[in-house]
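dumping this here before i forget
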Amino acid sequence: MLNVRGLKSMKFGVFFVDLGMCVLAARSLTVLRHRSQALWLLYLCHVFEAWLHSFIHYKTVWTEKDMIYLPPMIKLEYLKKIRVRWIILAIFLVAIWIVMGNPRLGEWYSRSIYPWVSGMLSRFSCLFPFSVGDCFIYGSIAGLLGYLSYAIIRRRRIGRTIRHVVEYLAWVYVWFYIAWGLNYFREDFFTRTRTTYVPFSSEHFQSFLDAYTDSLNASWVPIETIDREVVKEAVQEGYRELPTRFGLTTPGTYLHPKTMLFSRLMSGVGVMGYMGPFFTEFNLNGQLLPVQYPATYAHEMAHVLSISNEAEANLYSYLICTGSSVPEIRFSGYFSLLPYALSNAYVALDKDAFEAWKKRLRPEIKDLYNEKVAYWQSLYSPLIGEAQDVVYNLFLKGNKIPTGTANYSEVIALLIALEGE
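structure:
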């Protein structure tokens, strides 16, 4: 029999479902306007609440005889498990969406919560020489496909199968944002660092371009190989010396990069590195050129240290590498900015001025740049590469990076603003 105590327990669960619905309904429209998942959660909560109400109020006391007339899902023990799991999931989702709508809360997460979460996850993942995050992602994809295939072969109920898949993806969504993704919603660079934004002007850009070109030419050094331990020590030391106003976490000495599980596949879509958010890892492409290794290392470490904005990650990579006393690392920093300097100069300068600027570059640097472009072009697969660009562009725009993949080249504006201080 279901006693009065059990009945009160279920009514207590209904209270929390009602509370979750009220919190969701009270959220600002600016937060929910672009989040259809919130509407889905409201719908699921409503269905679940109606289900509980009908179960509780249909009879005050249930006997074993009565239970046989109920659908299998309304068995008491299963009901208790579902209720607790979905209530916890709903609380996490609501908390995440609240932080997404408030940059101050996002900044609090980045400075107070993220260092603890990332410390635990990264210490665990650093125990393994391979990318734990890659194993999780590819394993999840294989697992979901296998589960769906099994359900189809065994003719399981479609509704139940889809519900399990959606629930798993919802927990992955929660894990992603709690483990790292909420860094997308912290205060913007200018607010956080109290740096004055400098509107674009031809004079500012030309001044920056002249100084950068002179420094790039002066830093030239041939790089055949790169000492990865030297890079690790130099980059970590550089991040420890960054002013606290930038709001980065302090890198642990135990941090080390992982080689991607499928570097060739990532080369096909033009990815040289990425940060693994589920276990706070940073993964580098095994096919990186030696001249690219230090700057890419520093860029991905910036993501590990709570920076989500790609332009900011480029900024810190540039500052760390160009400030190094190691010639190879310093040149890698200047060389990494060349593609963004080229794209900005192509737009900002007229044709004659652009061609004149290119002639100022050292021939060795131009040859190296052309070799780098040809190398990655030979590995690039247009079909999957363009698909990845579209998906990643949408992902960035959906996470408070309105310019999408164009955000990478905005590093020039950040550098001009810092130089103006």
